[in-house]
Amino acid sequence: MTTVLHEVAPTAAGGSGFETLPSIVMRRAREMGTTTAMREKHLGRWRTHTWEDYERRLVDIARGLHGLGVEPGDRVAVHSDNRPEWLFADMAIQALRAICVGIYPTSPSAEVEYLLNHSEAKVLLAEDEEQVDKVMAVRGNLPHLRKVVVIDTRGIDMADDLLMSLEELEAMGRSSDLDVAASAAASQPEDAAIIVYTSGTTGPPKGAMLSHRNLQAAAEASGEVFAVDPRAEVLSYLPLCHITERLVSCIDAVATGYVVNFGEGGETFTQDLREVQPTFFLGVPRVWEKMMAAITIRMEDAGALKRANYRFWMRTGAKVARKRWTTGKVRGIDKLTYGLGWLFLYRPLREKLGMSRIKGVLSGAAPIAPQVLEFFWTIGVPVREGYGQTENTAQATVTPPDDIRLGKVGKPLAGTEVKIAPDGEILTRGPGTFLGYFKDPQATAETIDAEGWLHTGDVGELDEDGFLTITDRKKDIIITAGGKNVSPSEIENMLKVSPFVKEAMVIGDQRPYLTALIGIELDTVSNWALHHRIGFTTYADLASKEEVVALIGTVVNEVNEQLAQVETIKRYALLPKELDEEDGEVTATQKVKRRAVEAEYRQQIEEMYR
Amino acid sequence: MAGTNLLEVRDLTLRFGGVTALSRVDFDVRHEELFAVIGPNGAGKTSIFNCLSGVYHPQEGSIRLDGADLLGQRPSKIAGLGVGRTFQNLGLFVHLDVIDNLLLGRHHLMRSGFLSGALWVGRTKREEKAHRHAVEQVVDLLELSSHRHSPVGMLPYGVQKRIELGRALCMEPKLLLLDEPVAGMNLEETEDMARFIIDIRERLGTSMILVEHDMHMVMDLADRVMALDFGSPIATGSPAEVQSDPRVIEAYLGGAA
Question: How far apart are the CA of A133 and the nearest CA of chain B, in angstroms?
Answer without folding.
Answer: 13
